[in-house]
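Thread: quick sanity check before group meeting

JM: Hey all, I'm pulling together slides for Thursday and realized we never actually wrote out the predicted structure for the chain we discussed last week. Dropping the sequence here so it's in one place. If anyone has concerns about the input, flag it before I start.
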Amino acid sequence: MNSSESSASVTFTLYASLRLYNAALLVVVSVLYVSGLVLNLFLLLVIWVESGLHRPMYVLLVNLCVSGVMGSSSVCLHIITHLLSSRQQTSLPVCLTQVFFINAYSGSMFCILALMAYDRYVSICKPLLYHSIMTPAKVRTMLLLVYVTLGSSSAVQVLLLCRLRLCRRSVEKLLCDSLVVSKLSCEETPLIAAFGLCCAIAVVVLPCLLVLLSYLHIFMVVLKRSKVKGLQTCTPHLVTFINFSAASFFGVIYNRLSQQVPEAVNVFTCFNFFIVPPLLHPIIYGVKMKEIRKSAKKMMKRHL
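JM (edit): ok, ran it. Output follows.
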């Protein structure tokens, strides 16, 4: 990408179509974003303060919250800025930076949910070996592998997008993603499409398969031992995984049909993938997990 292209800007025309609702959208996005940020930070504080929660499952939950905050911040701050501005434009480097964080967010959520499913599998199916399998060192290694892989793949995708020659400068969306930048190109982008497909298989399809296999083994063990109570610790994770998978599915369908869907669907899909999951996850875990509820109450009583 030459200097003239790197200094160019991308215009998001959807904001002009929604101008009558800008004030309402600004309030909704701000309230949802700040609420999600406060809830995630509170959950992180509870886990950090209470030493009894310094266990693999809660370490993974901390990383899930951090990924959610990263994803919602990269999108919500962008949307709020454009809703407050008279010109909805973003420089190409800023757009590509957003692509990086969006890719890292979506991949990290699936990978961390897969690690959490594996943690529940070991806990329920191999309880005597749990502490030897899910050691702090192994958990740190798995998380490091996830972040290095996602950071590298996202960086490569951004570098591939940087090489494109762009003929268009406007998009009918609220934000930048890799598909948006690809559609601005003057030529076909088979290499970027192939690389994106490989990344999707590695950080979405394979983690989903790991989750499904983990819960298949869990259900078989629970039914065999008649210990239905063992599923209670899986409920928050299952709800979180189903919620995020559904949001991702609708996001993929929308990306393929973005020219044929109403503007309201455009906005809903964006909110459903980037704003709602980070807001719901701390609520789900805070309500469903007894240890977190007790620790939160104890901390609030101690400080208030």
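AS: nice. The chain has 13 helices and three strands. Residues 3-297 form a domain with the Rhopdopsin 7-helix transmembrane proteins fold (CATH 1.20.1070.10).
JM: adding both to the slides.
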